[in-house]
Amino acid sequence: MKTPSAAPVLCLGEALIDVISRAGQATEEHVGGSPLNVACGLAQLGHPTLMASWWGADKRGKMIADHLNAAGVRIVDGSDQAAQTPIADAQIDINGQATYHFDLDWQVPELPAMADIAHLHIGSFGATLEPGAEAVLAAAKEMAITGTLSYDPNARPSIMGDPEKVRERVEVLIGLADLVKASDEDVAWLYGPDTPLEEVLRRWLELGAGMVVITRGPWGAYAKVAGDRDMLVVDPLNIEVADTVGAGDSFMAGLISGLLDAGLLGSAQAKTRLRQATLADVRKALHRGVITSGLTVSRAGAYAPDRACIEQVQTANPQL
User: Fold this and answer.
1) Neighbours of 300 (CB within 10 A)
2) How far apart are CA 127 and CA 132, in angstroms?
3) Which residues does 206 contact at the CB level (< 8 Å), separation at least 6?
4) Three-state SS for 191?
5) Do 209 and 175 contact (CB within 8 A), yes or no?
6) Are the C-beta atoms of residues 295 and 313 closer than 8 Å to each other?
7) CA-CA distance, 36 to 22, in Å (whole number)?
8) pLDDT by residue for the chain (320 residues), tens digit each?
9) Which residues, in sequence order, are bridge partners of residue 223?
10) Following DSSP, what letter does each residue of 79-95 receive, concatenated?
């Protein structure tokens, strides 16, 4: 594996407390939030990473700060200025699937200059929920010029509202992004359950994305790049699932990490290289995403594996 670049990745979006309820078990509280999970995943994989978010200077906020510090993520000043730390009530069913309800306010602290950032990752409701969404869009527009951008719509219907109203902003961000990752559930919410995933892959590339991946849970993922006419089907790891919390975020962290190491994200020049890349050029990065996601679902909670864990899996299965 290549040594990660010195310029940091900035993850911009929600950081919160998941209040997790499972039938017959005591309620638990864990640090969560999709962009936060991606930040921790990237830091664990050795990439200098910053987190910009909006939580309170309270007990739960300290949990978030401690969690990020432990993962090696640096916190953007002002991220703890919310009136109170947001929470997500996560109901886990017997299959390990999570359903969320939220109590939060979303704003954006003053951000570092995008020229000092190698890559910006945005996602989930932080990219569409006002008043913070306008600041996210402004950062995305700036980063689309100076570096690279990844985006995960990560639909949360209970807080994002009507997909008819949200879709326009989602597609604007897709058009700015170099890498887009979504789940089949995100696509079904945005476009309806009967919309073919292959059609969405093509549409998002036509909007301007350089690479699009749609994850399909236990059925793996579809991937397509602007520079290759074909679509790649990526199989998942064969692993026993503890729960799916953070699975998509872990996949995204592994994928971004692999593309950074391949020189396909992280600079204006990398932006051009990604749009010229073939599926063969991104295959290793996709496999890293599969491994990180598989290791995450093998444990309860949003576990973020490090490079040593990935290398163990690759040693056991050289095809990865």
Assistant:
1) 15
2) 8
3) none
4) helix
5) yes
6) yes
7) 23
8) 444 457 899 999 999 998 888 777 888 898 989 999 999 999 999 999 999 999 999 999 999 999 999 999 999 999 999 999 999 887 877 776 777 778 889 999 999 999 999 999 999 999 999 999 999 999 999 999 999 999 999 998 888 889 999 999 999 999 999 999 999 999 999 999 999 999 999 999 999 999 999 999 888 899 999 999 999 998 876 665 444 556 789 899 999 999 999 999 999 999 999 999 999 999 999 999 988 877 866 565 566 777 777 877 777 776 65
9) 213, 232
10) TT-BSS--EEEEEE-TT
Distance, CA of 289 to CA of 157 (rounded, Å): 25
- C-alpha distances (whole Å) from 52 to each of 46, 83, 320 are 19, 16, 33
Regarding pTM above 0.85, the answer is yes
Q: How far apart are CA 71 and CA 255, in angstroms?
A: 18
- Retrieve residue 274's tokens: 């990604």
Cα end-to-end distance, the chain, whole Å: 13
Burial category of 43 from C-beta neighbours within 10 Å (exposed 0-12, middle 13-18, buried 19 and up): buried
Long-range contact pairs involving 22-25 (C-beta distance under 8 Å, separation at least 24): 22/92, 23/94
Contact 275, 227 (CB under 8 A): yes
Structure tokens at 286: 């996709």
Residues 6 or more apart whose CB falls under 8 angstroms from that of 182 comprise 152, 153, 154, 200, 212, 213, 214, 215
Residue 309: Cβ within 10 Å count: 16
Beta carbons of 210 and 149 less than 8 angstroms apart: no
Contact 13, 124 (CB under 8 A): yes
Tokens linked to 64: 């978030």
Return the axis-axis angle of helices 163-176 and 132-146, rounded to nearest 10°.
20
